[in-house]
Design goal:
This protein is an alpha/beta fold.
């Protein structure tokens, strides 16, 4: 059992806001869509009107954008951060102080301020991708 889960261990106060997606998305700088593929289009149609101008939309793969051709508002930056293993392994490696190899990409048609690569790198580093060895974070390109 992790030390923080043991009875009597004082836990740090959370810094996360809790609320419904309707309450939280309008404040978010990055909205991440990690739903199953079949739900992506419905989720994006639901959250896109709630997203503030200039926010970023993140995916863990590019199928919905590249193959389905989902249309995203032009003021929204679209990035992909794709760890090359299941989420449970990403978490376990992160807890050990490591990370897993991670692909990153920016949708060229949705990078209005040119900040997409910085957003993708920061998100990948936040999951520990930069600690996965020499090529921990790899740029993914589609021609």
């Amino acid at each position: 059992m992790p030390r923080s889960a043991r009875p009597g261990v004082k836990r740090p106060k959370t810094v996360f806001k809790v609320g419904t997606y309707e309450e939280l998305i309008p404040q978010a700088d990055l909205v991440v869509n990690l739903t199953p593929d079949k739900q992506h289009s419905d989720v994006v149609r639901t959250v896109q009107p709630l997203m503030k101008d200039g926010a970023a939309l993140g995916y863990s793969h590019g199928f919905n954008i590249v193959e389905v051709g989902e249309q995203i508002r032009k003021d929204i930056t679209v990035v992909m951060v794709a760890p090359k293993c299941p989420g449970t392994e990403v978490r376990e490696e992160y807890k050990r102080g490591f990370g897993v190899p991670t692909l990153i990409a920016v949708h060229p048609e949705n990078d209005p301020k040119g900040e997409g690569m910085a957003i993708a790198k920061a998100w990948a580093a936040a999951t520990g991708g930069h600690r996965a060895g020499r090529a921990g974070i790899v740029l993914s390109l589609r021609k």
